[in-house]
Design brief:
single chain, two-stranded antiparallel ribbon, 57% helix, globular
Protein backbone atom coordinates (compact mmCIF):
# COMPACT_ATOMS: atom_id res chain seq x y z
CA UNK A 1 0.00 0.00 0.00
CA UNK A 2 1.34 3.42 -0.95
CA UNK A 3 1.91 6.00 1.75
CA UNK A 4 -0.88 8.54 2.21
CA UNK A 5 0.15 12.08 1.22
CA UNK A 6 0.53 14.57 4.07
CA UNK A 7 -2.59 16.46 5.15
CA UNK A 8 -2.76 20.05 3.92
CA UNK A 9 -3.57 23.14 5.95
CA UNK A 10 -4.93 25.01 2.94
CA UNK A 11 -7.51 22.27 2.33
CA UNK A 12 -8.43 21.24 5.88
CA UNK A 13 -7.87 24.46 7.81
CA UNK A 14 -5.67 24.51 10.90
CA UNK A 15 -8.21 22.69 13.07
CA UNK A 16 -8.85 19.94 10.53
CA UNK A 17 -5.11 19.63 9.91
CA UNK A 18 -4.43 19.23 13.66
CA UNK A 19 -7.12 16.55 13.91
CA UNK A 20 -5.70 14.57 11.00
CA UNK A 21 -2.10 14.87 12.24
CA UNK A 22 -3.14 13.64 15.69
CA UNK A 23 -4.90 10.65 14.14
CA UNK A 24 -1.83 9.77 12.11
CA UNK A 25 0.52 10.09 15.08
CA UNK A 26 -1.79 7.90 17.18
CA UNK A 27 -1.92 5.33 14.37
CA UNK A 28 1.87 5.26 14.09
CA UNK A 29 2.17 4.54 17.80
CA UNK A 30 -0.49 1.83 17.61
CA UNK A 31 0.43 0.15 14.33
CA UNK A 32 4.20 0.41 13.93
CA UNK A 33 6.47 -2.14 15.63
CA UNK A 34 8.42 -0.54 18.49
CA UNK A 35 11.67 -0.31 16.51
CA UNK A 36 9.94 1.76 13.83
CA UNK A 37 7.85 4.14 15.93
CA UNK A 38 10.32 6.99 16.37
CA UNK A 39 11.22 6.90 12.68
CA UNK A 40 7.53 6.84 11.68
CA UNK A 41 6.61 9.76 13.95
CA UNK A 42 9.41 12.02 12.76
CA UNK A 43 8.81 11.06 9.13
CA UNK A 44 5.14 12.05 9.44
CA UNK A 45 6.06 15.33 11.11
CA UNK A 46 8.80 16.32 8.66
CA UNK A 47 6.86 15.31 5.55
CA UNK A 48 3.83 17.32 6.67
CA UNK A 49 6.00 20.34 7.47
CA UNK A 50 7.82 20.22 4.16
CA UNK A 51 4.68 19.79 2.03
CA UNK A 52 2.75 22.54 3.77
CA UNK A 53 5.65 24.98 3.76
CA UNK A 54 6.07 24.45 0.02
CA UNK A 55 2.43 25.47 -0.45
CA UNK A 56 2.50 28.48 1.87
CA UNK A 57 2.60 31.94 0.23
CA UNK A 58 5.73 34.02 0.86
CA UNK A 59 5.26 37.78 0.99
CA UNK A 60 8.95 38.22 0.18
CA UNK A 61 12.08 36.05 -0.13
CA UNK A 62 13.50 34.71 3.12
CA UNK A 63 17.11 35.56 3.92
CA UNK A 64 18.02 32.14 5.30
CA UNK A 65 20.85 30.36 3.46
CA UNK A 66 23.53 27.79 4.12
CA UNK A 67 26.12 29.26 6.47
CA UNK A 68 23.75 31.85 7.95
CA UNK A 69 23.54 30.65 11.54
CA UNK A 70 22.45 33.62 13.65
CA UNK A 71 19.33 31.79 14.81
CA UNK A 72 21.46 28.79 15.81
CA UNK A 73 22.40 30.43 19.09
CA UNK A 74 18.83 30.36 20.40
CA UNK A 75 17.22 27.63 22.46
CA UNK A 76 15.84 24.69 20.49
CA UNK A 77 12.83 22.98 22.05
CA UNK A 78 12.41 19.45 20.68
CA UNK A 79 10.04 16.58 21.34
CA UNK A 80 11.49 13.24 22.53
CA UNK A 81 11.03 11.54 19.13
CA UNK A 82 12.94 14.37 17.43
CA UNK A 83 15.83 14.03 19.87
CA UNK A 84 15.93 10.27 19.49
CA UNK A 85 15.70 10.52 15.70
CA UNK A 86 18.63 12.92 15.66
CA UNK A 87 20.69 10.59 17.86
CA UNK A 88 19.89 7.70 15.51
CA UNK A 89 20.86 9.83 12.51
CA UNK A 90 24.25 10.53 14.08
CA UNK A 91 24.83 6.85 14.84
CA UNK A 92 23.72 5.62 11.41
CA UNK A 93 24.82 8.38 9.01
CA UNK A 94 27.95 9.93 10.52
CA UNK A 95 31.32 8.13 10.49
CA UNK A 96 32.73 7.18 13.92
CA UNK A 97 35.50 9.80 14.15
CA UNK A 98 33.41 12.89 13.29
CA UNK A 99 30.53 11.44 15.30
CA UNK A 100 32.73 11.21 18.38
CA UNK A 101 33.83 14.82 17.92
CA UNK A 102 30.22 15.96 17.49
CA UNK A 103 29.12 13.98 20.53
CA UNK A 104 31.87 15.56 22.64
CA UNK A 105 30.75 19.05 21.58
CA UNK A 106 27.12 18.20 22.32
CA UNK A 107 27.98 16.90 25.80
CA UNK A 108 30.05 20.02 26.52
CA UNK A 109 27.22 22.26 25.30
CA UNK A 110 24.62 20.36 27.27
CA UNK A 111 26.63 20.71 30.46
CA UNK A 112 27.24 24.41 29.87
CA UNK A 113 23.64 25.29 28.99
CA UNK A 114 21.70 23.08 31.39
CA UNK A 115 19.54 25.11 33.74
CA UNK A 116 19.94 28.45 31.97
CA UNK A 117 16.75 30.43 31.40
CA UNK A 118 16.04 32.03 28.03
CA UNK A 119 17.67 35.34 28.96
CA UNK A 120 20.88 33.70 30.20
CA UNK A 121 20.91 31.40 27.21
CA UNK A 122 20.66 34.36 24.81
CA UNK A 123 23.33 36.25 26.73
CA UNK A 124 25.74 33.32 26.36
CA UNK A 125 25.63 33.76 22.55
CA UNK A 126 26.69 30.14 22.25
CA UNK A 127 26.11 28.57 18.87
CA UNK A 128 24.71 25.09 18.34
CA UNK A 129 27.26 22.32 18.81
CA UNK A 130 26.04 20.68 15.61
CA UNK A 131 27.24 23.48 13.33
CA UNK A 132 30.17 22.65 11.07
CA UNK A 133 33.27 24.76 10.47
CA UNK A 134 31.42 26.50 7.63
CA UNK A 135 28.58 27.46 10.02
CA UNK A 136 26.30 25.04 8.17
CA UNK A 137 24.15 22.52 10.03
CA UNK A 138 25.87 19.13 10.05
CA UNK A 139 22.56 17.31 10.63
CA UNK A 140 20.35 19.40 8.35
CA UNK A 141 18.23 16.48 7.11
CA UNK A 142 17.42 15.43 10.68
CA UNK A 143 17.00 18.87 12.28
CA UNK A 144 14.00 19.32 14.60
CA UNK A 145 10.81 21.21 13.77
CA UNK A 146 11.97 24.14 15.89
CA UNK A 147 14.89 24.65 13.49
CA UNK A 148 12.76 24.10 10.39
CA UNK A 149 10.21 26.59 11.64
CA UNK A 150 12.44 29.65 11.99
CA UNK A 151 12.85 31.75 8.84
CA UNK A 152 13.53 35.48 8.67
CA UNK A 153 13.49 38.12 5.96
CA UNK A 154 16.57 40.12 7.00
CA UNK A 155 19.83 38.41 7.97
CA UNK A 156 21.32 41.68 9.20
CA UNK A 157 18.47 41.97 11.71
CA UNK A 158 19.16 38.41 12.90
CA UNK A 159 22.83 39.30 13.37
CA UNK A 160 21.96 42.47 15.28
CA UNK A 161 19.55 40.51 17.48
CA UNK A 162 22.23 37.93 18.23
CA UNK A 163 24.66 40.68 19.17
CA UNK A 164 22.11 42.30 21.46
CA UNK A 165 21.54 45.53 19.53
CA UNK A 166 18.07 44.68 18.16
CA UNK A 167 15.37 43.27 20.45
CA UNK A 168 13.04 41.87 17.78
CA UNK A 169 13.32 40.12 14.42
CA UNK A 170 10.50 39.84 11.88
CA UNK A 171 10.06 36.16 11.13
CA UNK A 172 8.13 34.46 8.35
CA UNK A 173 4.94 33.42 10.11
CA UNK A 174 3.89 30.39 8.04
CA UNK A 175 6.62 27.95 9.16
CA UNK A 176 6.09 28.91 12.81
CA UNK A 177 2.37 28.26 12.46
CA UNK A 178 2.89 24.96 10.65
CA UNK A 179 5.43 23.84 13.22
CA UNK A 180 2.99 24.36 16.10
CA UNK A 181 0.16 22.71 14.16
CA UNK A 182 2.35 19.59 13.94
CA UNK A 183 4.18 19.69 17.26
CA UNK A 184 1.08 20.00 19.48
CA UNK A 185 -0.70 17.00 17.88
CA UNK A 186 2.51 14.99 18.21
CA UNK A 187 2.80 15.83 21.90
CA UNK A 188 -0.88 15.09 22.45
CA UNK A 189 -0.51 11.67 20.79
CA UNK A 190 2.54 10.87 22.90
CA UNK A 191 0.72 11.81 26.09
CA UNK A 192 -2.30 9.71 25.07
CA UNK A 193 0.11 6.81 24.48
CA UNK A 194 1.58 7.15 28.02
CA UNK A 195 4.96 8.25 26.67
CA UNK A 196 7.10 11.15 27.88
CA UNK A 197 5.97 14.07 25.76
CA UNK A 198 7.35 17.32 27.15
CA UNK A 199 9.59 19.59 25.11
CA UNK A 200 13.28 19.24 25.91
CA UNK A 201 16.29 21.52 25.54
CA UNK A 202 17.96 19.96 22.49
CA UNK A 203 21.68 19.91 23.44
CA UNK A 204 20.94 18.74 26.99
CA UNK A 205 18.59 16.00 25.77
CA UNK A 206 20.80 14.96 22.86
CA UNK A 207 23.74 14.51 25.23
CA UNK A 208 21.59 12.04 27.17
CA UNK A 209 20.48 10.22 24.01
CA UNK A 210 24.05 9.85 22.80
CA UNK A 211 25.28 8.66 26.20
CA UNK A 212 22.64 5.92 26.44
CA UNK A 213 22.48 3.27 23.75
CA UNK A 214 19.14 2.18 25.22
CA UNK A 215 17.60 5.67 25.27
CA UNK A 216 15.08 4.95 22.51
CA UNK A 217 14.02 1.59 23.94
CA UNK A 218 13.73 3.07 27.43
CA UNK A 219 11.57 5.93 26.18
CA UNK A 220 9.30 3.53 24.28
CA UNK A 221 8.97 1.51 27.50
CA UNK A 222 7.62 4.60 29.28
CA UNK A 223 10.72 6.05 30.92
CA UNK A 224 11.03 9.83 30.94
CA UNK A 225 14.54 9.65 29.52
CA UNK A 226 14.87 13.41 29.07
CA UNK A 227 13.39 14.54 32.39
CA UNK A 228 16.56 16.49 33.25
CA UNK A 229 16.31 18.37 29.94
CA UNK A 230 12.57 19.13 30.09
CA UNK A 231 11.60 22.75 29.54
CA UNK A 232 9.06 24.43 31.82
CA UNK A 233 5.42 24.51 30.79
CA UNK A 234 5.64 28.30 30.57
CA UNK A 235 6.80 27.77 26.97
CA UNK A 236 3.28 26.60 26.07
CA UNK A 237 -0.01 25.86 27.82
CA UNK A 238 -0.50 22.12 28.42
CA UNK A 239 -4.25 22.71 28.17
CA UNK A 240 -3.66 23.05 24.43
CA UNK A 241 -3.05 19.30 24.38
CA UNK A 242 -6.41 18.77 26.09
CA UNK A 243 -8.00 20.85 23.33
CA UNK A 244 -6.32 18.75 20.63
CA UNK A 245 -7.54 15.52 22.23
CA UNK A 246 -11.07 16.92 22.57
CA UNK A 247 -11.15 17.95 18.91
CA UNK A 248 -10.10 14.49 17.75
CA UNK A 249 -12.49 12.68 20.07
CA UNK A 250 -15.43 14.79 18.89
CA UNK A 251 -14.60 14.56 15.18
Amino acid sequence: MSEAPPPLVDRLGLQGFAIEMTRRFRAALADEPPAGRVRALTHLANAAFRENLDRAPRPQPVACAKGCAWCCATRVAATPPEVLSLARHLRERVDPAPRAALAARVVEAGAGLAGLDDAARAASRRFCALLGVDSACSVYAARPLACRGVMAFDASACKANHEGSLPEVTYYGAPLQIRMAIQLPLMAALRRGSLAWRLADLPVALAVALARDDAEAAWLAGEDVFAAAALPDTRFDPRQLDSVDALVDRA
